[in-house]
Amino acid sequence: MFTADDIKYIGVQDKITDLFESQYPLPDGVTYNSYVILDQKVAVLDTVDARFCDEWLQLLQSSLGQRQPDYLIIHHMEPDHSAGIKAFADKYPQAKIAASAKAFAIMKGFFGTDFADRQLKLSEGDVLGLGRHSLRFIAAPMVHWPEVMMSYDEQTGTLFSADAFGRFGVPTANCSPIDEARRYYIGIVGKYGAQVQAVLKKASALQLTGICPLHGPMLAGESMRKMLGLYDTWSSYRPEQQGVTVAYASIYGHTGAAAEKLAEMLAAHGVQTQTFDLARCDMYQAVASAFRFDKLVLAASTYNGDVMPAMRAYIQALTDRGFRDRTAAFIENGCWAPTAARVMRQMLQDCKDIRFAEPAVKLMSDLDDGSAEQLRQLAEQLK
Ligand SMILES: Cc1cc2nc3c(=O)[nH]c(=O)nc-3n(C[C@H](O)[C@H](O)[C@H](O)COP(=O)(O)O)c2cc1C
Ligand SMILES: [Fe+2]
Ligand SMILES: [Fe+2]
Fold this sequence. Notes:
Blueprint: E1 7-9, E2 12-14, E3 19-20, E4 24-25, E5 30-32, E6 35-38, E7 42-45, H1 53-64, E8 71-73, H2 79-82, H3 85-91, E9 96-100, H4 101-111, E10 119-122, E11 127-129, E12 134-139, E13 149-153, E14 158-160, H5 177-188, H6 193-204, E15 210-212, E16 219-220, H7 221-235, E17 241-249, H8 254-268, E18 273-277, H9 283-292, E19 293-303, E20 306-307, H10 309-320, E21 326-333, H11 340-347, E22 354-356, E23 361-363, H12 369-382
Parallel strand pairs: 7-8, 8-9, 9-10, 14-15, 17-18, 17-19, 19-21, 21-22, 21-23
Antiparallel strand pairs: 1-6, 2-5, 3-4, 6-7, 11-12, 12-13, 13-14, 15-16, 19-20
Helix pairs in contact: 5-9, 6-7, 8-12
The chain binds flavin mononucleotide and fe (ii) ion (2 copies).
């Protein structure tokens, strides 16, 4: 799998954490990837989450054999990758810690020390020669934190890409790799499309043969080309394909039933649709779906002159991530004074290039002849 025999994988599988960043469900777990390059100099690349540091240190020790590490390279200071720095530093006092200046500042916050006497400060373009391998550092600010660096192994053409190009799910999981990469990217980095575009530009100048992200499998060949293409699409906010996301938040179920009915009509027209009950689903699957397709239907009950809280949270999650360049449509419901459609439209008003499909469907409690006709008209507009 790896592009050189002297690069060893020492990552771990997390099958116990329920929510990544306390937000994103992990039904198939996640990996924290770490590598050791056993060249003339020995470099360890990143650490792992706190719950797995003992396991990681054992993996490291058995890869090292009789050798000692010269460097610990930290690409990203988020705790899922940096929790083991202190334990490593204590165990291997002669090893230097290599990271960006910003990473050292963050290190001080986490560990009370920035390891001043053993720092190797890295900047864009610096090259760390290990013998056969030399790592060239590439700044990747805000992909996903400000201090992030990637490194490019000039000998093998491998990019150690930090969080970029990663995904949820352990390798043995029976999940869709693309769906899990999309849910991961849109959820975690989606807001920073411009910064991802900048990194893609830098990557296009490299002779890439493989990408080693900090989560999920290593990418090479077709899987790498496909992921680079998807990152270009996602980070420029273009829809990946035609289709409709139908997301609803319904108190008693009438709005949900209308939304499901619309989805059935669209499916009958041969339109690809995904339907989400926002009160019950993993909201970030619905977020990822909205970025995947070119059309979005928002269906919600009115709630205290506003909109159902689950829908408010959903639209906020979309706008937080720069949602744009899509067609949006509304279904609202209320017994006495529906306001949901107005609120939902207002929440989208600052998004760029949103086209609204008409009519907005209005239910006064349950579908009647008039609202059923509106629903049919909307299906015609969206097919
Ligand atoms: C706490 C609460 C607040 C509500 N506020 C409003 C309101 O401000 N205006 C309105 O027309 N209906 C309001 N409703 C009524 C629902 O919007 C209405 O029953 C709607 O038909 C529910 O659709 P559903 O069956 O899809 O949940 C409220 C209901 C609840 C439980
Ligand atoms: Fe991160
Ligand atoms: Fe991460």
